[in-house]
Specification:
Elements (H helix, E strand, L loop, with lengths): L1 H14 L6 E10 L2 E5 L2 E5 L3 E7 L8 E6 L4 E6 L4 E6 L7 E5 L10 E6 L10
């Protein structure tokens, strides 16, 4: 009985105004003789809660790479075979547009794109 009541409480908290965090997996890949973050384009919306899970599984080369997104105050070291998790809320004040997802340690690491979309607000129907 306690289990059923616990599940009901959990489900009700999920149903009424609970905000979700979207997970974005980022991984280093080798492409065109360079190291890239994949996916090469990440879209987020102002005010959105996101969780980046960055991993580096490439053999050879550097033992670590950086995940660098200054607009989101992200500057993390991602070590080989040790996924790194970073949670952020995209600021409502961050201007919609395109930003770089780079590596603060290796200047030859090819940057990915962070596309920030403007938040949409629902307007009340006045009819």
């Amino acid at each position: 009985m306690k289990w059923i009541m616990g599940m009901a409480l959990l489900l009700s908290s999920l149903s009424f105004g609970a905000t979700t965090t979207r997970e974005i997996a980022m991984e280093t890949i080798k492409k065109d003789d360079g190291v890239h973050w994949s996916p090469e384009t990440v879209e987020v919306t102002q005010g959105e809660k996101v969780k980046f899970v960055a991993s580096h599984k490439l053999e050879g080369g550097f033992d670590f790479h950086g995940l660098f997104i200054p607009e989101l105050k992200i500057q993390e070291k991602v070590e080989r075979n040790k996924p790194t998790t970073i949670k952020r809320t995209v600021p409502m004040t961050l201007k919609a547009g395109e930003y770089k997802i780079g590596c603060q340690f290796h200047e030859k690491h090819v940057a990915a794109k962070l596309i920030v979309k403007e938040a949409t607000t629902k307007k009340a129907d006045k009819t």
